[in-house]
Write a structure and sequence with these properties.
Length: 167
């Protein structure tokens, strides 16, 4: 099975190299416009273009693909080395509990912020400030309030999702 995979990968690599070689060997034209600007193209249909000869391209075969190292018994090597530091279960539970508490505090603060924003927004009719004699300024502030509410709602959703994903 592994030999078939390696053979397939070699064949695909050779095909890709051959296609690249064939594409690279297409005709190239140097075009110079009336301002003297040079441009290289693969078609010479425009005025002021002449075909140029480029040196050939050298290609190399891809190195052989190595199969993953195996441990005794024919099983693949573990994803983490044996001397990789590990955390015991109690320490991990403490960390998870701390994380949950932090997320819940953030969620509570974000919900309070959202409630405050919605109260100030007053169902789309916030009170006009004295500095907003121009109606456009008032509309701009209302739009910014809407954006802040949407952002806060997304934050609450993300925090709830993060808490729900915990073990």
């Amino acid at each position: 099975m592994k030999q078939q995979f390696v053979a397939l990968m070699r064949a695909l690599t050779l095909c890709a190299a051959a296609i690249g070689y064939a594409h690279a060997q297409s005709e190239v034209y140097l075009c110079i416009d009336e301002n003297g600007k040079k441009e290289y193209k693969n078609t010479g249909a425009t005025k002021g273009c002449k075909k140029i000869d480029l040196p050939g391209i050298t290609t190399f075969a891809a190195p052989p693909v190595k199969a993953p190292a195996a441990v005794s018994g024919g099983k693949p090597a573990p994803a983490t080395p044996a001397d990789f530091p590990k955390v015991d279960g109690n320490t991990q539970k403490e960390r998870d509990n701390d994380r949950r508490q932090i997320l819940q505090k953030e969620l509570k603060a974000e919900q309070q912020k959202l409630d405050s924003l919605k109260k100030e927004y007053n169902n789309g009719q916030p009170e006009r400030l004295g500095s907003e004699r121009n109606y456009a300024k008032y509309q701009e502030r209302v739009k910014e309030m809407q954006e802040n509410i949407h952002r806060s709602e997304r934050n609450v959703e993300a925090l709830n999702r993060e808490i729900g994903n915990m073990k």
